[in-house]
């Protein structure tokens, strides 16, 4: 059994990174440049391009997630975000996705004993962002 955060780490974050990589490549950056920008190896970038990582990316059609990710990518391109700040933005987007229930079906696919509707992660703002103790 995987916790929702484990599912997010294994599935959603790589998918978000893949979308960012694809966007940066479409803007004309080389794989080597993109690797440096997002803090990955050039080999990892090649795996994203070859659809070997971040396969959940094709299912991320939520406009709010795409808008948030586009903003983070734009921040990197414009030099406003450093690599660690970009990665923090990706983490925040992932927590947001959890709070909106966007990861539920993926989580259930990893945890067949959980049945939908599951409301473990659903809230307006994740507790970790509010800095509350659960």
TrEMBL record:
PANTHER family this protein is in? Answer: TRANSCRIPTIONAL REGULATOR (PTHR40730:SF4), TRANSCRIPTIONAL REGULATOR PROTEIN-LIKE PROTEIN (PTHR40730)
InterPro entries with a match to the protein in the record: Cro/C1-type_HTH (IPR001387), Lambda_DNA-bd_dom_sf (IPR010982)
What domain of life does the UniProt record list for this protein's source? Archaea
GO MF, one annotated term: DNA binding
Supply the name of the protein: HTH cro/C1-type domain-containing protein
Q: Which Pfam families does this one have? A: HTH_3 (PF01381)
Database matches in CDD domains: HTH_XRE
Domain HTH cro/C1-type span(s) in chain numbering: 23-62
